[in-house]
Each structure stands twice: as C-alpha cells, then as structure tokens.
Amino acid sequence: MPQHDKILIIEDDFLIGACLEEFLISSGYEALITTSCQEAQTVFRQEGDIAAAIIDLTLPDGDGFALGRVLSQEKPGLAIIYTTGNMMDASTLSPREKFAAKPYVYEDLVAQLESLLK
C-alpha cells in the first residue's frame, strides 16, 4: 500500500475526476483535484509536496502537456501520467511520464502510478 503520496489530478470532466479521486483515496493516496491549468499551478505551488500529477491533455484554459512541462520544471523528477481520449505519441515522454488512453481502467492507472513512484 502506498505511503499516502500526494497526487494532483487535473481533469475538467467532473465525473471522471471525482471517480479517479475516490479510487486514488481508496488505494491509499492523498488526492487533490483541480479542473484547469491555472488552478493546478496554484495548488501545486501551495502544496509543495506533490509526488505525481495525472493530467488531462485537453483543459479549458490550456494544453495539459504544456502544463506538465511547467510542473516538471518546478519540480524535476515529478511523476506524470497524461490522459486523453485521443491518440498520443508516447515516444516523446520522459522516463518519469506515462500515457493512459481514456477510457482507462482505474487499476491500470494506479499500476502505472506505482511504477513511476518507485
């Protein structure tokens, strides 16, 4: 069981975000949910001890991939999982990043998260 790592969720679809938040909490993580790039950056800076981010690529105020780059610059080594209903070229990701296609299986997403946090 994880040691209550803090995970930042950036997802603008309420139902997807709420379900992911609930699943992460039931899996032993602390989950913080945001719905936009701006809100995510504010929470990320306030919290300071975020272990990983799960970022939707299509957000109302920006690009999730660009957000991931900003967060990674602020905290090198941050584990990131990008999610989208569209195809993505995973070959461009760093070793600390993964991709999960929607609809994803929550257990698979947590397995990806755990592999990044090792």
How would you describe the overall organization of this protein?
This protein has one domain (6-117): Rossmann fold, CATH 3.40.50.2300. The mean pLDDT is 92. It has a 5-stranded parallel beta sheet with strand order 2-1-3-6-7, with helices on both faces. A two-stranded antiparallel sheet has the order 4-5. It has helices at residues 14-26, 37-47, 64-74, 106-117; strands at 6-10, 30-34, 50-56, 58-59, 62-63, 79-84, 97-101. It is 40% helix and 27% strand. The protein contains 4 helices and 7 strands; from the N terminus they run E-H-E-H-E-E-E-H-E-E-H. It starts with 5 loop residues before the first strand and ends with a helix. The chain has 118 residues and is an alpha/beta fold. Keywords: Phosphoprotein. This is Response regulatory domain-containing protein. Residues 6-117 form the Response regulatory domain. It comes from Sorlinia euscelidii. The modification 4-aspartylphosphate is found at residue 56.
Note the main attributes of this structure.
118 residues, alpha/beta, 40% helix, 5-stranded parallel beta sheet, globular, Bact_response_regulator, Rossmann fold, single chain, 27% strand, Sig_transdc_resp-reg_receiver
Q: TL;DR of this structure?
A:
Residues 6-117 form the Response regulatory domain. The chain has helices spanning 14-26, 37-47, 64-74, 106-117, and strands spanning 6-10, 30-34, 50-56, 58-59, 62-63, 79-84, 97-101. With 118 residues, it is an alpha/beta fold.
